């Protein structure tokens, strides 16, 4: 009799585990990105927090603005450009990419064409692959 109950208990537990494994998991509700804010760091240097993608930064020079990373989406990049325009009328001339994760490069299409882009050789290679596949603009000049 004990063997029957042990076998029944084992089968019962396995059935519950199998049912739980097949139960669809609730999908997380996407969170809206935090509002974009600009924080002065030092003379001419600003941190951009919020928006879609990683935090970024920009540096205002006499000739233009150097942006560090491009955000995650073209829309986030456009919002960042709007925030930069609130700080300075100087144009963005250069982007420096720290690495090739999507939250740092996928916003490139939101920037004007013809900007200089500086990146380490591996970042350049990965970004050019993304451009070749149509993920980002291929018409930007990359300097490695």
Q: Order of strands across the widest beta sheet? A: 1-2-3-4-5-6-7
Low-confidence runs of at least 5 consecutive residues: none
Shape: globular
Largest beta-sheet characterization: 7 strands, mixed
Looking at the structure, the CATH topology is Metallo-beta-lactamase, Chain A
Gyration radius, in Å: 24 Å
Task: Give the CATH class.
Answer: Alpha Beta
Discrete helix count: 4
What is the CATH-assigned architecture? Answer: 4-Layer Sandwich
Helix vs. strand class: alpha/beta
Task: Spell out the helices and strands N to C.
Answer: HEEEEHEHEHE
Distance between the termini: 76 Å
Q: What is the H level of CATH, i.e. the homologous superfamily? A: Ribonuclease Z/Hydroxyacylglutathione hydrolase-like
Number of domains: 1
Key attributes of the depicted protein:
144 residues, alpha/beta, Metallo-beta-lactamase, Chain A, seven-stranded mixed beta sheet, 4 helices, globular
Task: Put the structure in a nutshell.
The chain has 144 residues and is an alpha/beta fold. The protein is 35% helix and 23% strand.
What would your notes on this structure say?
The protein has 144 residues and is an alpha/beta fold. The chain contains four helices and seven strands, in the order H-E-E-E-E-H-E-H-E-H-E. The protein has helices at residues 2-22, 74-87, 102-105, 121-132; strands at residues 37-42, 45-49, 56-60, 65-68, 92-97, 116-119, 141-143. Strands 1-2-3-4-5-6-7 form a seven-stranded mixed beta sheet. Strand 2 (45-49) and strand 3 form a beta hairpin. The longest helix has 21 residues, at 2-22. The model has no long low-confidence stretch (mean pLDDT 80).
């Amino acid at each position: 009799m004990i063997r029957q109950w042990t076998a029944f208990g084992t089968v019962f537990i396995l059935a519950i585990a199998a049912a739980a494994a097949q139960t669809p998991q609730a999908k997380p509700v996407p969170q809206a990105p935090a509002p974009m804010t600009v924080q002065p760091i030092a003379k001419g240097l600003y941190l951009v927090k919020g928006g879609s993608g990683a935090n970024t930064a920009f540096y205002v020079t006499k000739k233009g603005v150097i942006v560090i990373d491009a955000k995650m989406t073209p829309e986030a990049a456009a919002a960042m450009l709007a925030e930069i325009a609130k700080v300075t009328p100087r144009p963005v001339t250069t982007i420096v990419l720290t690495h090739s994760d999507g939250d740092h490069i996928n916003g490139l299409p939101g920037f004007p064409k013809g900007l200089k882009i500086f990146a380490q050789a591996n970042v350049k290679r990965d970004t050019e692959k993304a451009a070749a596949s149509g993920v980002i603009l291929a018409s930007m000049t990359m300097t490695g």
